[in-house]
């Protein structure tokens, strides 16, 4: 028998199904059974007869066909098969799963140990031949299945599908990554193409084919990012008249050219600060490190593509490293040695060791360089002040600022209005307007507006304030898109512990409470309680402190709001006690700065990526020091 006949015989043996489907499943799941993973991924029961067939054919390939009935060969086959089986039983006495290749490896080994060297050699050559034929078969199959379709370009013209170009993109994307398959991505992509498919849909098919594999192997996230990067390069470079497309190695030469063209085009389109032209653009362009494009995962690059990269009529003409350089230039434009500072900032950002805040990434180097993260304001108790605060919110949100508003000074529902001889509708209707303002004025079209309203726990409208995020009740008195926070004094918690009463006031009658903290607050609050008991105050309400605390916790559990923040703790630890009282925190409750009706507090944020600063399982303090030194310089320049 020839080796080719042997190959067909063994391949058929591998593909046979043992018994019915039901009995096979029972055998596979039975404890103590050996199971085999075939090359197509199917799991079947271990069958020693198939080893006998394969070994027998190996001997027949080496000897004449008349040896089939030889007692000598029969005994050798039995012995070798038994030896192979013993190895696996000894290795997995309780049963387990083997790959078909493991069995064939063991057959080779046992042939050698039984001194059947010629047969073993022929068997090894046969396996190599079959492996080569399978590989060629797959390649041949993939080539045959490429459909003859046309691709529609942006100008409406059609060209044949360039399968070599697609293969090149995918192969470059998979380069240097383990456990990823370019062929599987390409094959899956081709299945989703059709005659006349647009260029954008063709690229989207590539991205989606790679993206669906991320949950199987995390490295596909890098593959997908690189495919998206190829699309971004084509989009940006063609817009800047540099090239129609570019591979990653070619970007080493294209980046400096694209950078200069980008600065010119951005200033021409009135999107970039003309002062950027005062930099030595050649020096900055040569400092760009194109290999850092390959650090992105898919989610990271897609987020930059959707929200951060500067675009004109939905065409992104800002590449990742140019994006980081633009941010660095905006932060260093006032520096004495601005090129060196820009390069220093660029290298820190592009290494992912440190990242500036979203407003800085959005606006640095543009005509509207609003780079700060959060703004804290106090809303005064008059219409001009209230709607002035609304205007401030709108303008700050327009340029990506997060908002923390202190609403405690605004008088409560039913309070007397001297100017009109009427009564106030309280703070809630104004909060509804503030909520809708944040929705209407998003952050530069890149993300939703975000704000948080703070109210002190003694405010007469506090009970309605607690209900603002509920999904039931009058929707005109609900703020579904705005965060809320309760500004709690220590005295309230003392009353809860003592199971005592708590009195609510309107700030129109108790205007100084909001500016008092600690013991001064407690003293003045108790004086107002005494006045209320004597009937000297028109608006007040006394409730058990525990009832209010219980409702606060109930709403926190039900809606996640209002957040509980502690007034006296924040003021006690404030390093700025000499310049005023802290009336609220910011949008994210991590910053506490003093505010007044005349002064807006601002916070500037940045993030140090600590995992990037680990060395041999410990924090690299030298690198952390270097990073923070540069990061603080960047924050100072905001």
Automatic annotation (TrEMBL):
GO molecular function annotations of the record: ATP binding; ribonucleoside-diphosphate reductase activity, thioredoxin disulfide as acceptor
An example Gene Ontology CC term for this record: ribonucleoside-diphosphate reductase complex
InterPro entries: ATP-cone_dom, NrdE_NrdA_C, RNR_lg_C, RNR_lsu_N, RNR_R1-su_N, Rrm1
E.C. no: 1.17.4.1
UniProt keyword Nucleotide-binding present: yes
Ranges of residues in domain ATP-cone: 34-134, 149-238
GO BP field: deoxyribonucleotide biosynthetic process
Keywords, in A-Z order: Allosteric enzyme, ATP-binding, Deoxyribonucleotide synthesis, Nucleotide-binding, Oxidoreductase
Record carries keyword Nucleotide-binding: yes
NCBIfam families, sorted: NrdE_NrdA, PRK07207.1
Family: Belongs to the ribonucleoside diphosphate reductase large chain family.
Protein name: ribonucleoside-diphosphate reductase
Organism: marine metagenome
